[in-house]
Design goal:
Elements: H1 2-11, H2 16-34, H3 39-49, E1 53-57, H4 63-67, E2 74-80, H5 83-92, E3 98-104, E4 119-125, H6 135-138, H7 140-146, E5 149-160, H8 168-180, H9 190-200, E6 201-209, E7 212-220
Parallel strand pairs: 1-2, 1-4, 2-3, 4-5
Antiparallel strand pairs: 5-7, 6-7
Length: about 220
């Protein structure tokens, strides 16, 4: 129960007011100057891996999906514990050639049947460092997502592990976000992330850009 409460606390800051400035504060400023990983690096993952049937876990403001090169006639399912990012991103994707569905759920629980299965791609960008617990606990998210990924699909994402940030801006943000419960990455390390991924997928790749760890995973274990 404590873990679920922490997950809700981490999701609470995503209010309409915060989502209105998310692109400027997170995408344009924090990614580049605090974490030393420009948003274009993560956007490249979307352009390389996103499939026609896509599940987006924790869509934030929807900037990545709005700027990604979506396949024609895509079907995009958005999943988040907080309904505000779901509504915000859905509105943002209006007019694009994709069918958008929303599911209010936590990735710490099994993916609801209403979300569907057989996704060509799953994106989980800047979500893991918000989830409570170490990777022995939050790693269950990968097991849940492996259940709904197509056999030839790809899961991709990024996270901020518990390393001392290379910038003062990053160190200040980490301290503030940890204090208010938005960051829960005190026990997150590279080995734990890799172990959690490999427990759910047979093929895993990790890389680092600045303070951000990027990952891809294929061949789900079921």
């Amino acid at each position: 129960m404590a873990g679920k409460d922490a997950a809700r606390i981490a999701a609470e800051p995503y209010t309409p007011a915060f989502l209105a400035v998310y692109d400027l504060w997170v995408i344009k400023l924090s990614d580049r100057f605090a974490w030393q990983c420009p948003a274009e690096v993560m956007l490249d993952q979307y352009n390389r891996f996103i499939g026609r049937k896509h599940l987006e876990v924790g869509p934030g403001s929807g900037w990545y999906l709005a700027n990604a090169e979506l396949p024609p006639e895509s079907a995009v399912t958005l999943m988040d514990l907080n309904p505000e990012p779901l509504a915000h991103t859905r509105r943002r994707l209006e007019g694009r050639s994709c069918d958008v569905r929303t599911v209010a759920a936590s990735v710490l629980d099994p993916v609801p049947e209403s979300a569907g299965v057989g996704f060509d791609s799953i994106g989980i960008n800047f979500v893991l460092h918000c989830l409570p617990g170490d990777f022995g606990e939050k790693g269950v998210a990968f097991a849940h997502l492996a259940q709904v990924l197509a056999d030839d699909g790809v899961l991709f994402g990024s996270t901020i592990l518990n390393r001392k940030s290379s910038t003062l801006f990053g160190r200040v943000l980490t301290a503030i976000y940890t204090e208010v419960g938005a960051f829960n990455n005190a026990a997150d390390d590279h080995a734990g992330l890799e172990t959690a991924l490999r427990s759910a997928f047979a093929e895993v790749n990790l890389s680092e850009v600045g303070d951000v760890t990027l990952f891809t995973a294929r061949k789900p274990r079921r």
